[in-house]
Amino acid sequence: MTQQLIGGVGTPPQTRLSPPQQVLKYAAVVLLAASGLIIFAFQLLPLGYPLLAASIVCGFIAARALGRDLSLIASGVLIMSLVPITTDISWEHMTLMGAAMIAAIAVPYLGSRYLFRDHAVRFPIRTGMKWTRFEWGWLIAVVVLGYLILPFYMIRTGVYMNWPAADDASSIGRLFLGTNALDIWDELFFICTVFALLRRHYPDAVAMVAQAVLFTSFLWELGFTAWGPLLIFPFALVQAYTFKLTKSLSYVVTVHLLFDFILFLVLLHAHDRNVVPIFFY
């Protein structure tokens, strides 16, 4: 019971699966990851939706609890696929995408808590555990790594052009707001929802890789193209592993916010090299 209360990682009642059910169980997670890649990265919705549906069907055939959890994840993927996922920082787009992001979190959460009544999706902000010296050290390391990697990636590849230039107080504020809101949403959905639900049925390594594929595919559509997946995929794996160890949403969000604060500064500098001239690339 304690495991379920911290981090939403409790496991459902286990039943012995036959070999064909085991095959379908793993086919389900492969189809889920493939559907995210097709829907977000390649934006081939007519192909991605059947793969997403097939994942749920395979899950239900393998085990009812798996099918239910996959349907919760699929609901979030489906909702986000219905809106343009771009870096447009107009109030109209931010409102539209923000509403979809809220729904993509709320539907799995409410479905888990009130429809399926297992409360498997949780957002553990206060765990009662102090951050260790290593965890404080990792926060510093994240800032250093962001400073060394992000300017080189964003400017050398020209990927920064996927973001609009923020050259006045209003646009800078909206860029900052949008970047931070997306950071928090990434952890709420990909870690506290997708990863937490998948690890109820699969080994942690499988759950980590599947959520990392979805995470990377989503950010590719957002604008992290070129060799961005070589950066995002390991980051997503590390975030999932960090959540596994700390069971703390507040910690993984802090990591993400620090990393993307460097991204925010890099974007300002990339569009106007006289702004925040502190980077080397």
Task: Kindly describe this structure.
The protein has 281 residues and is an all-alpha fold. The protein is built from ten helices and no strands. It has helices spanning 2-5, 19-41, 45-62, 64-81, 91-115, 133-156, 169-198, 204-222, 228-246, 249-271.
Structure summarized in a few sentences:
It is built from ten helices and no strands. With 281 residues, it is mainly α.
Number of strands: 0
Backbone structural class: mainly alpha
Return the string of H and E elements: HHHHHHHHHH
Q: Total number of helical segments?
A: 10
Beta-strand content: under 5%
Task: Report Rg.
Answer: 19 Å
Poorly predicted ranges (pLDDT <50, ≥5 residues)?
1-8
Shape: globular
Average pLDDT over all residues: 94
Terminal CA distance: 50 Å
**Proportion of residues in helical segments:** over 70%
Largest sheet: none
The oligomeric status of these chains comes to: single chain
Features:
281 residues; mainly alpha; 10 helices; globular; disordered N terminus
List strands and helices in order, with pairings:
Layout: H1 2-5, H2 19-41, H3 45-62, H4 64-81, H5 91-115, H6 133-156, H7 169-198, H8 204-222, H9 228-246, H10 249-271
